[in-house]
Design a protein that fits this description.
Blueprint (H helix, E strand, L loop, with lengths): L2 E2 H4 L5 E12 L2 E6 L1 E2 L13 E3 L2 E8 L5 E5 L7 E6 L1 H25 L3 E5 L5 E5 L6 H17 L3 E7 L17 E7 L3 E4 L14 E9 L2 E8 H22 L6 H37 L1 E3 L2 E8 L4 H12 L4 E9 L2 E8 L8 H12 L2 E4 L3 E6 L4 H13 L4
Parallel strand pairs: 1-4, 17-18
Antiparallel strand pairs: 2-3, 2-8, 3-7, 5-6, 5-8, 6-7, 9-10, 10-15, 11-12, 12-13, 14-15, 16-17, 18-19, 19-21, 20-21
The structure holds zinc ion (ZN).
Zinc ion binds next to helix 2.
Length: about 400
């Protein structure tokens, strides 16, 4: 069993120890020490990093026999080692972990929502609550209570309690371990069985901020940040708000209103654009009709319309084909390439619109199909002259 120095002093950064076992793993050499200040991944809290005799410690884990193993970047000579943990990382974990105790206590007390799991992430941390619903008002209320406890600056005490006496301790959650149980105790606030690392006083957590609420496996998942992470989160959020309000030329407080106004403006603009395009399509249809050549009593409307959306060009073709004795073949410009529509009047049953369309798409390297009265297709983008030549060749076949 490895003596866990962080259990009695979570602020210990440097220590000396002896290597009592070595192992070659797939990820590199690992050593077991007689004592260590390195926290192994457990209980939702990630492991510490640091050095043993200036060799980087990349992972730390414990095994069922109570031994703590340290994965090293390379081997270490000799059995006596000096260890140093990365304090910035450890301190951050202590802030997040202690904040989690307070937040879980708050949700349990104010909302009767027990915590079922905890994960300390690289960006934000989460607790999963066994509760069906949770509102932001609930979260704000719990947050206010938690931060008041932080500012009370209560001591965070560690007590070793024998399992026979543990029933006397008002634990938030039943312990998973037996024997001597390590209880993290914050007077009048929380008692939890926990082997993690915590700050010595609640004030050191600084602040706890809930940043996310979402449904998860029938319960609710709460994302939160504490201490230094809360400051970084606030800076990032403020930067995003400042950028958006500068772009919209409004004060951050008026951002929500400005977005609603902008959405309204965009909706009006889309409606007006649609109306204008429809009016233009009517004019364009008439222009195409007037410009079309009529021979043998059949009017051949053939054009490449580049300044209207392809959908509307297709609409023009259909509308013109509702007139008497007309064959319409139109090409339109689309971001994906050419869009082609061929349609003919019902009183020209001998004209095959589908065959005409295929003649165009084959020549332009595309594809399409439809009925004898109406067909559609597409082809890769091509030059205006090339498109017009293909359309002319196809329409020439009409009426012989
Ligand atoms: Zn803990």
């Amino acid at each position: 069993m490895t003596l866990r120095l962080y259990h009695s002093d979570s602020t210990l950064r440097d220590f000396t120890a002896r290597i009592v076992a070595r192992r070659d793993t797939e990820r590199g050499p690992a050593v077991r020490l007689d004592r260590t200040a390195f926290y192994p991944t457990a209980g939702g809290q990630p492991h510490d990093t640091g050095t043993l005799n200036d060799v980087r410690v990349r992972d730390v884990w414990d095994e069922d026999d109570g031994a703590v193993w340290h994965l090293l970047e390379r081997g270490v000579d000799g059995d006596a080692v000096t260890g140093a943990i990365d304090w910035e990382r450890r301190f951050d974990h202590m802030q997040q972990h202690t904040g989690q105790h307070l937040l879980s206590a708050g949700f349990g007390r104010l909302r009767e929502a027990p915590t079922v799991s905890f994960h300390l992430g690289t960006d934000e941390s989460t607790i999963d609550l066994d509760v069906a619903e949770l509102s932001w008002d609930d979260a704000f209320r719990v947050e206010a209570w938690v931060n008041q406890v932080i500012w009370d600056d209560r001591p965070v005490e560690i007590h070793a309690v024998d399992e026979d006496d543990i029933h006397q301790v008002p634990l938030r959650k039943a312990p998973k371990v037996t024997g001597t149980i390590r209880v993290v105790w914050i007077r009048d606030v929380d008692a939890s069985a926990c082997g993690g690392t915590h700050v010595p006083r609640t004030g050191v957590v600084g602040v706890v901020k809930v940043v996310r609420l979402e449904r998860y496996k029938g319960g609710m998942r709460v994302g939160f940040v504490c201490g230094g992470r809360a400051l970084v989160h606030h800076q990032r959020t403020l930067r995003a708000l400042q950028t958006a309000s500068a772009d919209l030329s409004v004060h951050p407080d008026q951002l929500a209103e400005a977005v609603v106004r902008l959405q309204g403006d965009a909706k009006d603009a889309r409606r007006e654009l649609k109306a204008a395009r429809e009016a233009l399509a009517v004019v364009e249809a008439e222009r195409l009709w007037d410009a079309a050549v009529e021979s043998d009593g059949v009017r051949r409307v053939m054009a490449y319309v580049e300044d209207l959306p392809a959908e509307q060009v297709g609409g023009i073709a259909s509308r013109l084909a509702q007139r008497s004795r007309a064959v319409v073949l139109l090409a339109a410009n689309d971001p994906k390439g050419l869009r082609l529509t061929c349609a003919r009047s019902a009183d020209l049953p001998d004209v095959d619109a589908s065959a005409m369309l295929r003649a165009v798409t084959e020549r332009l390297g595309g594809r399409g199909g439809g009925t004898a009265a109406h067909a559609q297709g597409g082809a890769p983008a091509a030059g205006r002259a090339e498109v017009l030549a293909a359309l002319a060749e196809a329409t020439d076949t009409v009426g012989g």
